[in-house]
Amino acid sequence: MELANWLQSIAERRWPILPDTLSDLRQACARHSDLIRFTDMANLCLSDPLLLFDLMRMVGGSRSLQQHDVLPSVEKILMLIGLEGALGRFGRLTPLESVPGRLSPEVIEAVGDWLARGRVAAILAKTWLSQAGELKVEDCYMAALLYNLPACFYLIYRNDIPDKPLLQAVSETFGVAYPQLLEAFVRTMPLPVGLLALLGKQGGASRRKQILRLAVATANGLEQGWWRATWTVGIEAAARLTGLTFEEAYGGVVNAVRQVALHPRAPGYAHPAKALLLLEGEYHRPRQHAVSTLTDAEQLDLSIREAMRHLANDLHFERVLFFQYVRDNHHLRLRYQLGVAEDQPLRRARIELEPGSFFALLTSKPQSFHAPAAVRAQLRQKYGDPFFTLSGESDFALLTLFSGQTLAGVFYVDHGNSGRAIDEDSYHGFKSLITRLTHRF
């Protein structure tokens, strides 16, 4: 199914909400009108992304909300609708339940898990922003709640849990990056256009938007393991943006996970806590900060392989290569690769570090380099290095990795299979991860 058709099919339906939310909502709405408080109803909406989605759709087509980037609070939306309108809207809601042959209990549990991750991200974004002195944070809270919704609808339509990471599976199915799919989702429903200032490209890369994205990435990546550099890098970045210590920023994660687990709307709401506490599977007690003193070759090698998996699985680079520095012969040789076919000459590439060559200049110090396709052509012409021919024609990015003062190797990433350009967010994530590893060696 094409993306536009799929999104339109979502927009044409009224979607159910979590059963526990519906039960509490019916109890709240059954009270005498003098006892119904908009604050209580707003809190219910903010506890279940499906209920928030239903409410936002009711006002999303409003001309004023489509013309301005202002995202009103949930309580304000309820007041604008009025008590009678809200009761009429909520009175027609149905619960999300399994249907034999159409929607399995396992899928419903997975949906609950991904809705819970949205809740964790929302609380985390609110916490980090508040600690940084931001006073108005509900817009980021709502944006975080809605971030995973298209992926949840994908699970419901598919009635199966993909083997790949969910957001990656959604992106590959429709052939677009998940943030682009999310923008199309907001416009098609429609939801208030103010969401695009936080979830889309418009509005620039503000600190609020960066913290929101870091909160979402942290919540969605909980199962990576709290001890892994590929997960804690987001928390460290948030700490720098907010002026917090790592311990304070990490404490926000623990608090968010705990709040969601203590106030569940579905069994899946306990999954983030299980992931953080490592309750499932064999328990390992790794050293949380082992990468900060990496001097042993085995530990360095392990961190490089973890970084490569993160670049491929989370940042979605199609080809990821690590060229190790060989001191004896003073050259770079391919040590690890992801996404390169066996018959590709790139697998056998040997990069010489002759004085004055491009790679000799690159590896002279810790640095990164992003080359659009036109720059690649200029490099090929100027330096004549066969590597620029072997690696194709697309954008690429490079980053040198040092262990102390010693060159360890060079990371190379691109979208060499599809030819897509490397966007700014992906390049920033690439630099942040590898730079962090460099500082810890």
UniProtKB/TrEMBL annotation:
Cited InterPro entries: GAF-like_dom_sf, HDOD
Domain HDOD: from-to ranges: 15-205
Coiled coil (UniProt feature): none
Protein name per its UniProtKB record: HDOD domain-containing protein
Domain of life: Bacteria
